[in-house]
């Protein structure tokens, strides 16, 4: 599993193989069962994660008491909660494993020590965050400007496997529609696709 992280190191740093192995020896990899809550809304995060295998949902209960899904993290995605701007440092989101998951776990209280020992690790982390943030910005801009059907088509194109991995009501919440609307739009898209193949 750590081989995936080593590929990231090779792409984002100029660390030697020996330096990569030294870092990998220090990294904590944990297995979590489906349904495990990694972080509850309102708690102060103590860890960040990198998904080697599995699916983690980011969600929150809004002021109306509705549960809203805001992201799904799957293989090769980093999970960080940026809340330093908040006086109490609490998380606006919960993180829950939707599948049995294997995650790299980074305790935030030892993060600076790791960066001090392995300076390129900080650069790699920054590049990963920049890539992720850039992608989130693009997706958010597209989400705001698109119809529910366009959102689903974009998801099917960008993350085709996700639709079969997560419950439909959570997927509908993520796409900003009702489960009934999602079902109707899916049928229409699949029917159009089938007609094009004829």
UniProtKB/TrEMBL annotation:
Record has Cytoplasm as a keyword: no
Ranges for domain Cyclic nucleotide-binding: 11-57
SMART domains the record matches: cNMP
Domain of life: Bacteria
CDD domains recorded: CAP_ED (cd00038)
Keyword annotations from UniProtKB, A to Z: Activator
The keyword Hydrolase is assigned to this record: no
Record protein name field: Cyclic nucleotide-binding domain-containing protein
Organism encoding this protein: Paenibacillus auburnensis
């Amino acid at each position: 599993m750590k081989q995936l992280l080593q590929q990231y190191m090779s792409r984002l740093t100029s660390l030697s193989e020996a330096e990569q192995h030294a870092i990998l020896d220090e990294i904590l990899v944990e297995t979590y069962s489906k349904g495990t809550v990694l972080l509850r809304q309102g708690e102060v995060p103590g860890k960040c994660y990198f998904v080697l295998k599995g699916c983690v949902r980011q969600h929150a209960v809004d002021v109306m008491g509705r549960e809203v899904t805001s992201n799904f993290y799957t293989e090769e995605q980093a999970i960080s909660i940026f809340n330093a701007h908040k006086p109490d440092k609490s998380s606006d989101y919960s993180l829950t494993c939707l599948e049995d998951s294997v995650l790299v776990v980074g305790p935030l209280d030892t993060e600076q020590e790791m960066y001090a020992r392995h300076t390129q690790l900080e650069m790699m982390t920054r590049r990963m965050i920049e890539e992720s943030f850039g992608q989130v910005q693009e997706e958010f801009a597209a989400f705001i400007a698109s119809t529910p059907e366009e959102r689903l088509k974009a998801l099917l194109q960008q993350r085709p496997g996700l639709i079969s991995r997560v419950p439909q009501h959570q997927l509908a919440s993520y796409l900003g529609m009702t489960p009934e609307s999602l079902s109707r739009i899916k049928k229409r898209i699949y029917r159009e696709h089938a007609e094009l193949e004829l």
